[in-house]
Design a protein that fits this description.
Layout: E1 15-23, E2 29-40, E3 50-54, E4 80-84, H1 111-125, E5 132-136, H2 138-149, E6 156-160, H3 168-182, H4 193-207, H5 211-217, H6 221-238, H7 242-253, H8 267-272, E7 277-282, H9 291-300, E8 304-308, H10 323-337
Parallel strand pairs: 3-4, 3-5, 5-6, 6-7, 7-8
Antiparallel strand pairs: 1-2, 2-4
Length: 338
């Protein structure tokens, strides 16, 4: 189900690509698989102006709307921006929406399965080579996987707050979020309202922000608690599915571009194989995807440019909610794509 439109979101017609039985890298199959996507702008005659944008964990095709449109980094007068919803986000086929494999009957999937679904979409649209691919957080992780899996199809990669291999810390954060949701008896089939209430404190405060950001925004401990309540109310309006989040965190935990076929688990070799010009943007004091992980990936990719967002917000600096952060990202990405 699509969440209610929020300020700054771009309303575009939803399109769906039916792929039937979609085989995962595990060998399992998602039946009646449909990929949800939207497009902004128009493909040129040579189909050479396509940019793929992908979604972060728990988000939809609106995640990068602050980068899309006239005067933005993903300029729709110049580029055709195709935004693909990730497996398990509630719009593309997910545990919460599957009729034949609902809930815990849904097979586990991976970041590489997300990338494969996107490759199938590009084939359907007749796009041989992407001008660029862009994503943040889990989206940035998909972009690095794209660069390793399909070097001949990707000219430029823009990965915001990514990891090439999920750190132990990030997996621990995901486990904390799962335990918060699964403490609610309705986590597998219902709205899990109490679970999301606890999840908000874990993910939007302890992992998503920084101590400095909270000090800057809150004059007292009571203000901080009130802020958490506001974030919970906003999250509740999204009507997200707990089981979808849980499945996506399992894909997140398993992420490692080194385990791509042909690299035998060698992360360094996988990153050194990247031929796309690559922009990696990190956030200082990222408490979800550690800043050091993004920096390390940038040192291994041959044509990588590394930047840090001058922000106190930590992981959420890549969300575009703060005007200064959005402006920085639009400038850096526009310059890189040009």
């Amino acid at each position: 189900m699509h969440p209610p439109l929020q300020p700054g979101w771009i309303d575009r017609p939803h399109e769906r690509l039916a792929l039937g039985d979609f085989r995962l890298e595990s060998g399992e199959v998602i039946h009646d698989f449909e990929l949800s996507y939207v497009t902004h702008g128009t493909l040129n005659a040579s189909r050479s102006n396509a940019i793929l944008a992908v979604t972060a964990i728990g988000s939809t095709h609106h995640r990068l709307d602050f980068l899309i449109g006239p005067g933005k980094a993903l300029e729709t007068e110049r580029y055709c921006v195709i935004v693909a919803d990730a497996i398990g986000n509630g719009l593309t086929t997910s545990p919460s929406t599957s009729r034949r494999q609902p809930g815990e009957a849904f097979p586990r999937f991976t970041i590489r399965d997300m990338v494969e679904s996107q490759r199938r979409l590009l084939d359907h649209l007749g796009i041989a080579i992407l001008h660029a691919a862009v994503g943040a957080s889990m989206g940035g992780m998909q972009i690095l996987q794209w660069a390793v899996s399909h070097p001949a199809r990707l000219a430029r990669a823009v990965a915001l707050v990514p990891m090439a291999r999920t750190t132990a810390w990030s997996a621990a954060v995901n486990e904390a979020s799962r335990r918060a949701l699964m403490a609610d008896p309705g986590w597998a089939t219902g709205p899990a309202r109490k679970g999301w209430h606890a999840w908000t404190a874990v993910m939007q405060v302890l992992a998503g922000r920084t101590p400095a950001a909270m000090e800057a925004e809150c004059d007292s401990p009571a203000d901080a608690i009130a802020w958490i309540e506001q974030r919970w109310q906003a999250q509740e309006k999204m009507a997200a599915s707990a089981i979808d989040w849980i499945y996506q965190t399992h894909a997140y935990d398993a992420h490692d571009v080194g385990t791509t076929q042909g690299f035998a688990g060698d992360l360094c070799a996988a990153l050194r194989s990247v031929t796309a010009a690559t922009l990696i943007v990190a956030a200082p004091d990222d408490l979800y995807n550690p800043t050091a992980a993004a920096r390390a990936a940038a040192t291994l990719i041959p044509q990588a440019l590394y930047r840090e967002i001058p922000s106190l917000l930590g992981h959420q600096a890549a969300g575009g909610t703060r005007a200064e952060d959005a402006a920085f990202l639009n400038r850096e990405i526009a310059a890189f794509l040009a």
